[in-house]
Specification:
Blueprint lengths: L4 E5 L5 H12 L3 E6 L12 H5 L12 H5 L4 E4 L3 H14 L3 E3 L6 H10 L5 E3 L5 H17 L4 E6 L11 H14 L18 E7 L2 E4 L19
Parallel strand pairs: 1-2, 1-3, 3-4, 4-5
Antiparallel strand pairs: 6-7, 7-8
Amino acid sequence: MVRVWRVGVTALAGRMGRALVRAIVAHPELQLAAAIGRCGADYLGEDAGRLAGVHALGLPVTADLVGALADLDVLIEFGPVEAALAHVAACVAAAKPVVVGTTGFSVAQRAELENASRHIPLVLAPNMSVGVNVLLAFLPAITAALGEGYDVEIVEAHHRHKMDAPSGTALALGRAVAVGRGQTWTISSVWIAMPFPAPGWPAVSALRRCAARTWSVNIRYGWRGPESGWS
């Protein structure tokens, strides 16, 4: 008999929250068991399915994460940094696994998450896309092979509601490049609100030559595996 995992999702009104609800509803081995929203939000009490743009699920959005955790197998967290830390602490107290896709944590806050991971299963990733994680895996080898004659620029563009810049993905790419070069990771410059020709464009270039590496990933659905019939 196939096990059905009871999943809770936070930040239900956000883009990722709604996308996660749609993905969970479409998966035969997952059940949305808790829909967590922000305290005081006007959508509390609404049906989680309708809020996410699918059919009614008979599951109202609640701000009571602590009460919901007892009935969950895992929580998926994509809320703001401070809320995410509070939710992780609640998971530690309830001994429940958590997947964290929130970005923008400070060094001290990441240390808090690392400490939490000693007590519960905790997945923390700056990007859940399979394509981006494949890129992160190969980027150290690529930069090592090209050598120090090449400069590296990481160029990204996001919607205007993006809360952290550089993004967690861009920072992860920078760390991967630094590993390939045996260097300490530092940010030399950041530009904001510039027009870019593509959603993401990490480029490796040298004088009079340019070897560009581009990716195009549907970030909201690129983390779904082919084994489940998802693209």
